[in-house]
Specification:
The structure is a homodimer.
Chain A (H helix, E strand, L loop, with lengths): L3 E5 L4 H12 L3 E8 L6 H12 L4 E6 L33 H16 L3 E3 L15 H13 L2 H5 L5 E3 L7 H10 L24 H13 L9
Parallel strand pairs in A: 1-2, 1-4, 2-3, 4-5
Amino acid sequence: MGKKAVVLLSGGLDSATVLAEAKAAQYDLFALTVDYGQRHRREIDCAKAQTKAQKAVEHRIVRLELTAKDSSVLTGGGEVPAYEPRKDVPPTYVPARNTILLAMALSWAESLGAEDIFIGATAVDYSGYPDCRKAFIDAFETIANVGTKAAMQEGKTFRIHAPLLKMGKGEIIARGAQLGVDMARTNSCYDPDELGRACGRCDSCGLRLKGFKQAGLTDPLEYA
Amino acid sequence: MGKKAVVLLSGGLDSATVLAEAKAAQYDLFALTVDYGQRHRREIDCAKAQTKAQKAVEHRIVRLELTAKDSSVLTGGGEVPAYEPRKDVPPTYVPARNTILLAMALSWAESLGAEDIFIGATAVDYSGYPDCRKAFIDAFETIANVGTKAAMQEGKTFRIHAPLLKMGKGEIIARGAQLGVDMARTNSCYDPDELGRACGRCDSCGLRLKGFKQAGLTDPLEYA
C-alpha cells in the first residue's frame, strides 16, 4: 500500500475531479461522502460511480444530522434561487459546512494513519462562501496539527489539499476531462426533478453550463 | 431574549458545570448533545435533566455516525482500561472528536445568530487529550472567525469558552456544587453496568472519585 488520502466526495463535478487528482498523485483513496440531507440525493449515486472508476480502497457514506438545517435552501429552508452572479454569500450556504466535513475527514484520516485530506473547495466562482477560501483551509490545517494525537504524539503532519482553490469552473472541467472523469456521472444541480435530471437554472447549474462553455466542451448531462 | 450561547453538553460532570456557568453568565442556553454511539447512553438522560434544571431554551440531540468508530474504546474498539495516571493519550481518545463537536456547535450557533460557544474541555486531568488544550481552543476560534458568513459578512465575532480549561477535577466539582448542579444527574463512567450504574474503576470514574475527595464532597452517584 502507498500513501493514504481521505477525499471528501459529494458526487459533484468538483469533488469528482479532486478524487481523480488524488488518484493521479498515486494516493490510495479513502472517499468520504457525508449525507446531511441534501436535496440532491442523486449526488450519492454519482459519488459511488466515481469511487468505482478510481478504484478507491474504501468509500464511506455517513449520515449527519445538521443542527442548522433550516438555515440553508439546500437542506430545507425556502426556494432554490435562479442563477445570478452575486457578491454576497448565497442562500445555499450551509453554516460551517466545510468545517464539519473536514472535521469528519480528519477523524477518519487519523484513525487510518493518513496525513492527507483532499477537498474540492474553490474560491473563484463561489467567492461568496467563507469556508472555501485559502485562509479557511490554512486555519483548518492548523487545527489538524494542533488537535490530534497523530500530530501531537506520533510526529505526523496533516496536509489539507484544495487543488481547485484558484481554479474557475471552466479550468476545473478542462482538468477533469484531462484526468478522464466521467462527467455524466457527476451532479451539480441543487434542484433536480423527480427523474434526477438537472434543472438548468439554479446557481450551480448556471455555473456548470458556463464552465463547459469556457472549457469548449459539451456537458453530457441530461437537463429537464 | 438576552445573548444566546450554544453549550456542548454530554451529560457528564464537566459539561453540566459549564451549562450552569453559562446560565450564571446570563446567556439564553441552546444545549447540543451529540450522540456518536458512546457506550454510556445514560449520559443523554443526564443531559436532558441538566437542560431542564437550567431552563435551556432548546436542547438538541443529534446522531452522528463516526467514521473512526473502531479506533476508540468509547465507541466500540476493545476494553475500557482501569484507571491509572498516564502521560500518553488514553485509548478513550476519539480522533478529532472536539473538532467535530465544535464544528457542529458552530453551525448551529451561526444559524441562531449566537456568537458564544461553550465546551467543557479541561487540560489538567486529561492532559493526554490534544483537543483539550488552549492551543486547540484558540485554533478553533480562528476557524470560526474565518470560516463563517456571520463573521465575514455580518461583523460577528465568535468566542469559544472553555471555562474549565485550567481546572482540576476537584475544582470543577467544587464550582459545580457552588452553582447548584445536581451531581446525581451527571454521568462520568465509560463502562456502566446494565442498570446504568458507574463501574468505579475506569479512567473517568477514578478521576471523578478523586475529584470528590479533593473537593471534600460526597459523590451522590450509586456505584456498581
